[in-house]
Structure prediction request, 1426 residues.
Amino acid sequence: MKFRKNKDEEPTAPGQVAIKKRSKVPGVMITQFVEEIPEGKSHPDFTRKPIALTIQEGKFAFFKAIITGDPTPTVTWARNNGDTSDPERYIASYDPIADEHQLQMPNVEVDQADTYKCMASNEFGRALVTVTLNVIEVGFKKSKAMQEARLEQREKAVADLKKTLRTRVETQKEERKDGEVDEKFWELLLSADKKDYERICSEYGVTDFRWMLRKLNEKKREIEEEQAKFIEHLSNLKHIEIKTPGCAEFEFEMDLKDPNAKIFLFKDGVMVPFNTETDEKHSLRQVGRKFIFSVHGLNPEDAGLYQVDIEGVNVFSTDFKIPMVDFLVKIQEVKAIEREDAVFECVLSAPLPKISWMGKNTQLVHGEKYDISVSEDMLIHRLVVKDCMQVDKGIYAAVAGMKSCNAWLIVDPDPDPNNRGRKPARKTTTAGGGGADLLKIAAVQQEKLQKEREERMEQTKKFEAELDAAIEEEPPAEEVPPKGPTGPTEVPAGSPKVPVVPTEVSAGHPKGPSGPPKVPVGPTKGPTGPTEVPAGSAEDPADSAEVPGGPSEDPQVQTATSKPKDKQKPKPKPKPDCGDIVNESEPVPKVNKKKAPEFLPEERVSSPPEEESPSEEPKKRVRTGPLIPDTKIDPGVHFTNGLSDVHAIIGQSAEMKCKLSRDCDGVWYKDGKEITSTDDLKILKDGVVHKLMITNCQEDDSGKYRFEADGRKTEAIMIVEDPPRLNQDDLAKFSEPVIIKVGQNATFKLEFVGREPIKVQWYNEGEELTEDNHIRIEKSASHSRLVLVRCQRKDSGEIKLKLKNEFGIIEAFSKLIVLDKPTNPMGPIEVIEASSSCVEFKWRSPKDNGGSPITNYNLERNQIGRNTWVKLGNIPAEPHYKDTDVDHGRKYCYRIRAITAVGISDVFETDDIQAGTKAYPGPPSTPKVVSAFKDRIALTWVPPTNTGGTNIVGYNLEKRKRGSNLWTQVNLPDEPIKGKQFEVKDVVEGMEYEFRVSAINFSGTGEPSSPSEFVVARDPKKPPGKVIDLKVTDSSYTSLTLGWTKPKEEQGVQDEAKGYFVELRPAENTEWSRCNSNVLITTSYTILGLKSMAMYWVRVVATNEGGDGQPQDLDNYIIAMPPPVRPKFTDRKMKSFIVVRAENSARININFEASPMPTIIWLKDGMPVSKRVTVSNTDGSTQLLIASAERSDTGIYSVIVKNIVGQETFSVEIRVTDDPKPPGPLQVEENVPGTLTVSWDASPDEKRDNHLHYMVMKRDSVKRTWHTVADRLFNNNFTAVNIMPGREYNFRVYAKNDIGLSEPSVSQTWGVVRKREKFILNRTPSKTCNFESAPIFTVPLKTHTTPEKYECYMSCAVKGDPAPRVTWYRNNISLNANDNYYITNTCGVCSMLILTVGPKDNGEYKVVAENHLGQAECITQLTILE
Prediction:
């Protein structure tokens, strides 16, 4: 909004001018009143103008401005439409510390939205700026008036309900009209899915769906228009649900036009606070465009309607309902084997259609990996983890409402040794699950719930029976004569009023001319006096008649009790229990047979006291029993089981069935048309069960089917699918293997039927086949054919045909066998015997037999040294041959071929085999001690790898005592040991022995093995005991050092420990792992590679020859962290005061040591630091950074470092300031002779800087040098003493702060110059002198060290006559013509100024002065600090 210019609105004073000027701050309008402003004065201006503000109604709004000007300007605030004079709504203030002018508006209201202007003026001019305030009206106002109004409505509704229950008047529920529906109803519909519309309408009693949809579309258009102001995109609305135990979440994706727009969260219309911290009750996380709201620590009070608003516009609403349910049986730990399915099951206390399953803190969904199901009674819930692998082990949880339970899934490796090192096959078995026990518990719970329902029904029936009995036991009412000419029957005065139940006239009783006859019930007058009818003994409404008035013309009209009829007992309509006080004198409401019955208390039908006087006042009585119906209504036929959707396959049978509450006929409909039985469609009825059978389903059988009976109906959809199908005969023929030879073609063909399009895929050993030169695939609507051209042996395998369409998938399998000759036999050969009489050896069968079994082997032999091969012929298929036709000492070589029905393999040629030459076996392995006792030692060994070409016939075992060189054979020389183990009994108790073994073949005894370890002949040792004093000696974030004491030795109980094992278990695992593979000898160990701050359990196991002892655990778990250390600061010299120039960065580095990692808090003047301050924390240090400091950042900054051990605090004062501005003009006065008083105006920075002071310097006409006479003056005057008469004095005053000095303010010269007589000197004429000289530097250059980006000033003095020419050089390059250097030469003073130095300015600088008499040089060095 713009303000119109009006010359009359802000006129200038007479003699003033109006000069428009531009401010440095955009948007500020300045008007100058004078043509020239005196020095030191200035017109008003804004250094910081107010910022436009958009705020929610009821919040605290304010504008801030910083204004300069000398003299201090007057600041006023105004608004465009209205005034700001109300002190409760507008507060104008000035903060002298921050030099800020503020306009505050507490509890801002909608009508305060306007354009405001701030005007500052003084005698030299005026500055004006405008700013806009926007106020967002809150959609959910919680004012006191509204709360009182709602409270009054609730109280009125309760009173109306009580009144309704007392009078028992049946009122039909009126349909809601437009505008009368609860606003919560529309908020839920706006964010709900269409499938939930019916449920929400039923909850709020809305029955007019057309009106609802029309109204909903209108509201959607309205809300979308409002949302478009703040939101660009809104999608993926996910309603609130319990994600993890104790936490519920709802989320949506949203793009905001203004990222700084305010987001509000409401619960049941009440705004609730939230933040980004996940440990708070309500929190918000934003991940990209996704907003996730969480409610933590759930309790029943958290249920309700949650709404999210953006700047007062509703975006999303979701209703949170917490089911009250508990676990009867919780999920149990499951141990499964790899590739096996694991089952978790639980039983609930109440039916629940769905619960949440969690795995490793992630919600699980039904799919290929997880199967989530629920039983029909919705009590048993099951999770199946399919194909378990090691990555699946962990903790799984079930969450139902506010309750949860969890259990471990442990996956063990496959125990089958054949599967080690490779992926095991998929198993069909399952692990876990409750089985029959859970079914039994669920059945018991279902019976319990059913029993509770039946008890409630039985209680209702009991009340009905009592009511019927009470009515039947009542004495019959006397006939009441019709109204005579004298008037109606009188009722005695004072007698209690008796309720009258009007009913319809029975069939066969004609109505009188005045309408249906009326039978009064109660005290009446007969011929013998009044007859009293007890209160409450009303007749059966079915048999009473209502007589509105006038004489009755039908003499046959009788009361119900004079001629009772059979009474029907319709099923009662339940009514809420009420304990209100009921007045017996109130009339009983009328009951119509066609309307639903009302319930009456027991007191209404009970007999009154026999001695009750007719004149007694009506009494009030409190109902103690439940409500009892006075009539019963038959609910009619209803469905106990309705129709369900059916998916049928074309050509097969399908069935739809439903079940009624009682036997009744019905009608079937298809797509709204009645259907009857045909050949393919049969309608069956079996008592209360109705079935529809379709024997040969076709596509036109799809549709919506409906069954109606007695006004009730149930519907379901039948979908006839046409998946790919195969003829069983064709499939059996296709499954037969196709056997061909190498190079031939293989053909596979199969016909199929199904709805098109059908995707056809062929596979060979699981790899999909595509057409190329060797593969041809033919496809049509009814068949497919695969042709494999010129097949090779490698093409053999499983052939699969996969057919897929929109309805399903079917697969057919066959097998291709390509026959070829076998591969050659394989080596190495195994020589069984190579003696002088025979050569016996074995080989390995071919790797591939070519598809046919091996029938024979063909052998040829060659004697080494000859060129001929002798054919030995064919032998049986066993890969073994014994050649007896050999010569002693000769070497032979054999060729072997495998023979099958298809062909002969390539040749395999053996190594040379020598007949009859001695070849001794190699040494066996080192003997291993199996057990040792005092009278025997058991050993075992492994045969040698080199058998010498013949079989091993036995072994020789030798022993040797420790310290002896003599080996003694254990077995007899003629009795070699046949096996590979032996028990030595020839030992002496307590002696140490070592053993070695030699192998024997047909050639003789081979080399002995290496000796075994020494073993003592004694009984086995006892395992050691537990280690003593296990403790942690040192720790860090990645390591842990343990120390312990050797366990004690007890004879016969525990022996000495020979070593130790350290075992570790993370807190989340159940298995222990050993940290050291080799036995420890020392009593200390360091565990490496721990996770920082992770929890571990640690134990140490002692071991010896007798085995491992009992482990010794630490008393508690340990955390991977250094030992607790109280925080302390490590810097010796820490600055407690820092001065920072405005707009420069301020940085504070604090180093500390603490364990565990401490919490670091920075405060400014005792309050949390602002968002402008950046805090960076690392291990052992913290840093506070202000990127661009302002004067408002001045203050005391405190850092608090605390952990579980303690805390430490350190404070630093940061003062942000700038070069001070000079003080005002100086005035010098002589008030006392010999003294001068110097006074000046304050510097403009004096108000903003409490450290600013002044320094005074003086110079007289005699000394002509400036010297300081006063410093650290905090006032604006100074008295100088010792003023000498006759001298002239000058004064300078500087403003001084923590940064430095300002420009001086200089006084005018003070003093009187004495007039002296003129002195005349007569000089004799002097001779002319020659002053010419070569250049010389009187003041050389100095070495300079300057920080980067600062200015550098170099100067020197040179003299010479004539004046020398001066040239500057850097690194011998002339600088005189370089514009980056400012070079001057005034009266022999040569200077050079570098405005901003950088790394390029490093180096040597030289000045050369020269004239015709010579030259001089001066050199210096410039160093740039980074």
